Amino acid sequence: MSDADVTTAPAPSAASAIPPEELDRLTDEIIGALKTVYDPEIPVDIYELGLVYRIDVSDDRDIAIDMTLTAPGCPVAGEMPGWVENAVSAVPGVGKVTVTMVFDPPWDQSRMSDEARVALDMW
Questions:
Q1: Other beta carbons within 10 Å of 12
Q2: How many whole angstroms separate alpha carbon 64 and alpha carbon 43?
Q3: Which of 15, 25, 107 is nearest to 67 (CA)?
Q4: What angle do CA 75, 77, 81 make, to 5 degrees?
Q5: What percent of the chain has pLDDT over 70?
Q6: CA 104 to CA 23: how far, in whole Å?
Q7: Which of 1, 40, 112, 117 is the most buried (most CB within 10 A)?
Q8: DSSP β-bridge partners for residue 28
Q9: Which distant-in-sequence residues (6+ apart) come within 8 Å of 88 by Cβ?
Q10: How many other β-carbons are positioned within 10 Å of the β-carbon of residue 103?
Q11: Nearest to 60 by CA among 31, 14, 94, 10
Q12: What is the pLDDT of residue 76?
C-alpha cells in the first residue's frame, strides 16, 4: 500500500493507487475543508496559518493529518482535532480521518501563507 503525502502543496510525493485526477480532487476538497476551521483567537483558517504539517491520503482513502497549534497552551487544544476531523470527514469519498497533534517542529510565523500575512497585517 502506498500513500500520497501532501505537506504544503496539493501534489502527492509518492505513487498512489488512486487515479491522479481523483487524488487531486480529493486533496483540493480536503484542503477546502481545512480552510473552514479557524483558530478562534486568530481570524485566519488553520491551513493558511500553517498549522497543518501533513496530510496523508492512503490508497483506502483514509486520511491522516498531523497538525499543531500556534502555542501548546492554546485553550482549544483539546477541541481543535475534533473540528478538523469533522470538517475533513464531510468530504465525499474520504474514509477514516485521524488527526494527530504534534509540536515538533514548533509552529512559528514563517509557516503562514501570504494570504494569512495579509489578513493579519504581518509583513
A1: 20
A2: 25
A3: 107
A4: 145
A5: 87
A6: 27
A7: 112
A8: none
A9: 30, 33, 34, 63, 65, 94, 97, 99
A10: 10
A11: 94
A12: 83
Query: What integer pLDDT is reported at residue 123 of this predicted model?
Result: 66
Nearest to 56 by CA among 68, 64, 44: 64
Does residue 92 have a cis peptide bond before it, meaning omega lies within 30 degrees of 0? no
Among candidates 106, 47, 100, which has minimal Cα distance to 71? 106
Spatial distance between the Cα atoms of 9 and 83, rounded to a whole number of angstroms: 22
Which pLDDT score is estimated for 14? 57
What are 5's strand-pairing partners?
Answer: 56
Buried/exposed 82-94: b ≥16 CB within 10 Å, e otherwise: ebbbebbeebeeb
Q: Which residue has the cell 469533522?
A: 86
For β-strands 52-58 and 63-67, DSSP reports them as: antiparallel
Residue type, 31: I
Any idea how long the chain is?
A: 123
Strand 97-101's sheet: what is its strand order?
Answer: 3-6, 52-58, 63-67, 97-101
β 63-67/97-101 pair status: parallel
Q: What is the DSSP letter of 65?
A: E
Helix ranges (DSSP H) in 1-123? 20-34, 46-49, 80-89, 114-120
